[in-house]
Amino acid sequence: MKVLVVDDSRVARAIIRAVMLDKHPDWSVQEAANADEALRLAADQDFDIFSIDINMPDVDGFTLVEALRARGAKGRIALFSANVQEPVRQRAASLGVAFIAKPVTPISVAALLAAVGCESP
């Protein structure tokens, strides 16, 4: 599995990466600090899973999901956010992506993996 973790927080990216690789050491997990970097990486390779923060400077996670899909990305997507209000959850659902509440912890990363069909809840 190839995973792209997109978050402006270096700590969040590191936790997601570490938990995923601890559970699945054979996976390839790459990181992007913003939407532009994510789009560049996704243009060069196919990812099976995208973990995307919603609240990032310049381009938010919702816009990034739309851009990735417009460019033909087929991977399963989960959006992370500390904003757990219903409109945010509904927007994620309308895009057909999983919503995972922050903070990023081993438990929330496990929820992400379950939401994209890679592990049991």
Radius of gyration: 13 Å
- Write down the overall mean pLDDT: 95
Helices and strands, in order, run as: EHEHEHEHEH
- Overall geometric form: globular
Count of the separate structural domains? 1
Count of runs of 4 or more consecutive helical residues? 5
Instruction: State the fourth-level CATH superfamily.
Output: Response regulator
Task: Briefly note the structural class of the backbone.
Answer: alpha/beta
Q: Order of strands across the widest beta sheet?
A: 2-1-3-4-5
User: Any low-confidence stretches, pLDDT <50, length ≥5?
Assistant: none
How far the N terminus sits from the C terminus, by CA atoms, comes to 19 Å
Could you explain the architecture of this structure?
This protein is an alpha/beta fold and 121 residues long. The chain has one domain: 3-Layer(aba) Sandwich (Rossmann fold). 44% of the residues lie in helices and 21% in strands. The protein is built from five helices and five strands, in the order E-H-E-H-E-H-E-H-E-H. The protein has helices spanning 10-23, 35-44, 61-70, 86-94, 106-115, and strands spanning 2-6, 28-32, 49-53, 76-81, 98-101. A five-stranded parallel sheet has the order 2-1-3-4-5, with helices on both faces. Strand 3 (49-53), helix 3 and strand 4 form a beta-alpha-beta unit. The mean pLDDT is 95.
